[in-house]
Amino acid sequence: MYFSKSFVPILKNNPTEAKIKSHQLMLRVGMIKQSSAGIYSWLPLGFKVMKKIEQIVREEQNRIGVQEILMPTIQSSEIWKESGRYDDYGEEMLRIKDRQNREMLYGPTNEELVTEIFRSSIKSYKSLPQLLYHIQWKFRDELRPRFGIMRCREFYMKDAYSFDLNDDEALFSYNKFFLSYLRTFKRLNLSAIPMAADTGPIGGNLSHEFIILADTGESKIYTDKRIFEVNSASTLLEKNSLTNLRLQYEKFYSVTDEKFDKKEFEKVVPEDFRVNTKGIEVGHIFYFGDKYSKPMNTTVDFNGKKVFVKMGSYGIGVSRLVGAIIEAKYNDKDEIMKWPISVAPYHCAIIPMINKNDTTNLEKSNKIFEFLKFKNIDAIIDDTEENISAKIRKFNLIGIPYQLILGKKTEGDLFEFKEINGETQKISIDEVASQILKAKSN
Ligand code: ATP
Ligand code: MG
Fold first, then answer.
1. Is the predicted pLDDT of residue 393 greater than 70, yes or no?
2. pLDDT band at 358 (very low <50, low <70, confident <90, very high)
3. What SS3 class is residue 193?
4. CATH no. for residue 395?
5. Which of the ends of the chain has fewer CB neighbours closer than 10 A, N or C?
6. pLDDT confidence bin for 200, thresholds 50/70/90
7. Total count of domains within the chain
8. What is the pTM of this model?
9. Residues flanking ligand 1, CB < 6 Å
């Protein structure tokens, strides 16, 4: 891809309407474009990042045995009346009428719909557990949409749902998701801390939010800083080891503000370990038992008895994560953004110095591009006539993790290559590829 042909509408200056870094940067480098309040179009750079995040989320759901489905964005009000949430949800729900005057809505979440799908087909406890997820747009008519795609009205979410026979099995499902979230955020190069949370309008009794520390976050958190050191590297998908995994985190006091109790905090956390800060909620898991299965009469047959299934739900803010990664990775001091390689819009920027009458560097760039493509390395060539330092500034801003520079001095088979915030090396194209591939495989 040539930069001159790519749809990356970069702005000269930071947009004044944006208050936080991620929003500024996403508008500045043309990742998104607002279409109306809290509703955005995703342009190629932003869309690529979001799709890569989505794919990692998907792989980590599949890995714990969740099955992917796709439910519609528009739902009928009937099932929401059954659960009792049609009235409870209030003004955050966007309500629509179709031409027959039927009450419809744009789904803010999918507990009701998935329960309806489950109850129409699953009759026996022998089919349990059922773990289902989809990745779909949601709409919540937020009172104050702000910070770009971090708190918007239409957003992209992965939501999963578990159905089990009893509490014990349901907790096993819950713990699988707990593990899968730790793995997902690790692959996104984020340190997301699980914190005991309130269950809010979803309801229920057990819940964790996964939070990235950031000054611009909207969640207040109170935690014991030893929780940051917990290492959850390898865990089997097996009851005991998953319970132990969760216990390793739950040993430490770590809560969001709805659950905060000052006395308790001061009692259990030694002064030196107390952290009171802000974070961004990127995921949220809930266990709520029969909260929906009861009113929606969803049972399975167990030895001749009808038993209400026990349910949980598990969300990840796929679109919010794009902004959250920027908040976590942007380096204010050097004004450099470095995307984790797993989600970078491109792996490498090829930056040739271009003179009007000399196409040598551009031709070399084309060859390098083809070579990298063959190695599954996604590159972009800056074929514009800007000077080299302007080009480098531009790619520092966009945040593509590697830069390969073809300047005046480039001769023979060695190239100037650097990680965006690293030292320049002079190496062969094979070595370039092997460094990028190594980073990709980590
Ligand atoms: P918040 O407390 O931030 O309003 P929530 O608790 O209402 O979020 P959940 O119902 O737990 O959200 O939704 C699951 C995930 O979807 C959240 O963890 C978050 O990452 C994302 N999300 C929720 N609301 C929004 C929004 N308005 N814009 C973007 N992402 C959102
Ligand atoms: Mg939440």
1. yes
2. confident
3. strand
4. 3.40.50.800
5. C
6. low
7. 2
8. 0.96
9. 109, 140, 142, 151-152, 155, 157, 200, 281-284, 315, 317, 319-320
